[in-house]
UniProtKB/TrEMBL annotation:
This protein's record includes keyword Membrane: yes
InterPro entries, per database record: ABC_transpt-TYRBP-like (IPR007487), Cyclic-di-GMP_PDE-like (IPR050706), EAL_dom (IPR001633), EAL_sf (IPR035919), GGDEF_dom (IPR000160), Nucleotide_cyclase (IPR029787), Rev_trsase/Diguanyl_cyclase (IPR043128)
Record's protein name: EAL domain-containing protein
Span of the signal peptide: none
Spans through the membrane: 12-32, 363-383
PROSITE patterns, sorted: EAL (PS50883), GGDEF (PS50887)
Family matches, as Pfam families: ABC_sub_bind, EAL, GGDEF
Organism name: Aminipila butyrica
Coiled coil, from the record: none
Domain EAL residues, every copy: 609-859
Amino acid sequence: MLKKEKKWEWIILIGAIFLVFALAASIYYFFFYRQAVAPVSQDYLAAKQVLFISSYSESFETLALQKEGIQQAFKGSDIRLDIEYMDMKNYDQAANLQLFYEMLRYKLENGPKYDAILLGDDAALEFAEAHQQELFPQIPMVFFCINDKEHAVKAGENPYITGAVEAMYLKETIDIALTFQPKAKKIIALYDDTLTGEGDRKLFYSLKGRYPGYHFGGLNASSYTLDEIQQRLEALSEDSILIYMSFFEDADKNQYAIKQSVEQLVSYTHIPVYRVSIGGVGEGLIGGKMTSYKNSGYLAASMVMDILKGADVADIPVSTEGEGQYYFDYEVLKKYDIKLSLVPKDAVVINKKITFLQEYREVLIPLLLFVLACLLVLLVVVADNLKHRRLTREAQASHDKLQETCNKLIGAEEKLKQQYDAIKAYNEYLESQKEYIRYQAEHDFLTQLPNRRAAMEKLDQLIKAGEQFAVIVMDIDDFKEINDSYGHACGDEVLKETSRRLLELMSDKLFYASRLGGDEFLLIIKKAKLESDSKILTQIKQIFTKPVVFEEKERYIQSSMGIAYFDEHVADGGEILSNADFAMYAAKNLGKNECVYYNAHMKDEALKRKDIKIIIDEACNQDGFYCVYQPQVNALTGLTEGYEALVRLKDYDIPPNQFISVAEETKAILTIGRLVTKQVVEQMAMWRQHGLELRPVAINFSSKQIKDKTYVQYLKELLEEHQISPELIEIEITESIFMNNNEKAMKLFKDFLSIGVRLALDDFGTGYSSINYLTYIPVSKIKLDKSLVDIYLTPGKDTFIKNIIRLVHCLGLKITVEGVEKKSQYHRLRKFGCDYIQGYYFSQPITGKEVEDLKNPLK
């Protein structure tokens, strides 16, 4: 009987311990955990869709913190968050923007409808503003981490847009650095010539006036090689404060990630290095005050929450203060003997060692209380058990209850087993889907060709294996015009049909095809030297000999191809792809539908065009253009009857045919067109003021300027402002303006005529010249190109020129012949009845002042 009673004592004791544990867990759940995570009713947010457009890639340093802040703000709601990445840090190119636009437009047309848009960083805001009416009509948009404060405030004037800027806490960081280094005499900033670096440089020197008595100096990484940068870092004196703002490139155009830049700074400096942006703190930099990307994401997402609850976007002001936080590395503070008492109280200090008790204080105190509670309950249970040890009947009842509990546990175990079997079956299903998921990740959804990611992995494999291969970058010519003229459905069919034909060639194991994006394809041919008549190259060209059929209509397409070979000079897949890309653009410049092999000059030419683009942008913003005027002489009288205005760069000896072609690749040509027009009209007003009799002036109008929809109105207002007769303005156009824009071109011509200006057809005899155009283009003059003069205005061939002059006169038009440089040419053209002569025989282009002093040549 005694043994049985002891057995029950142990059973009751064990049960009591379990009860104490359950009681403590319940207390913790209800009083601590439940309060922390209890969900708030969010019925008004049910089934809401929010799209987050990030300017960068998923691996960019700030993105994880931004996402953490957004998710914290959305916690407890049913909001579904989708994310799209523009990747503008790696691909700041128009082609990438176009590809992202087409991808997003497709998803918006075929995917969920969004209730709000989050815009991370400047590129996302600019993209959303540019495509608001098309992609996001009447959808609330909240931006954050915007560097350009003025742009942010301007964007906030839109009734559907609000958000917050990303403040740069440079002054606060300099102030704390002066606190840490009171003996400092120099304040040095490290920056470069990138777009970010240019902004950093301006911000740094804007603070110079606030620190009188200190030497402000900059170290421009883009101006030095890596060795020179290292030498200058080592030479910094002890009385210097060094602030790392941007270091993404050096003079050799080597590119550096933040981690690589930090490694250089830590290795070659013997003074603290301060930071005003993310990256480097914890890796050797002392720190500073910088934007809290987590708080920025939280603030923007909170604005979205308010909007989804019913707040009006227009009532939420743009936040211009930013979300900042001091961050410092304890080990670096200790290294330079900087006392913690100097650190701001609200600063985050990392790498600070803490005691075992400090580290586990939050765990040890509840654990100690739990143990004391267990001991207390144990004493009570033992006392109660001793008091009632002889009550065997009650013990038996307790035994029965425990048996019942065990039976329930057995039932629960059976349910757990069933759940385990279900999870196992689900895992088996997931395993069966792996191959499908991998296929989707490595292939383009539209064409089913391998995608860019798979192609780059293929290139890296071939390079690692040392195999010989050639790369072709193929681009469909005038693809944008296909989309604009026949619709995106037709464009998609062109891409799919091209891909189907490439897939047929992939039966050859030496041939590999992929879609890079947009209308670009990457082809890899292993173990082959591609001569112009090689079999595989011929097969590739033949896929464009058959038309693409869409809606029962045949459409022929063409492509431009660039070819590059792998050799020991190629570092990686990205470089050989870039080489082939250079060659492809060279093929485009040759007139399209060409195949060009890469050479080193193409890269030089591309870099030269890049430099010219920078010069053009600078000239557009700093009054960097001026006009000269070449006389147009009456062939019969020899008197000057008009001028052609020609644009020149002020501070650079770059021929117009070079910088104009670069400007036509961007919107700069629109700016240049208006600058030239303004200068011409103002010059004519000045001539009149100086007593000069005004003669007509011809202004060149680029085919790309057809995108300037208000140019005619702009010209009209200029003429009215300066009281210049429209009849004194002649607009020179070329046939290319209506090759792909016939309806728009004809409307433009009509608008020009409606305000009273005349039209002339320039460069006749080159390019696409057709007599048919002269029957319906409302021009009053034809200008014969210099190339025809050089070829045909010679004995035995000049009948050709004579017949052209006769033909133009039969159409009731006047003709000007350009490029006349010899007396004999002038006399023959005069004999043929030519109306006007223009060329160096009479005068080279001259300034407006020289026009006033010009003497008419004798007959």
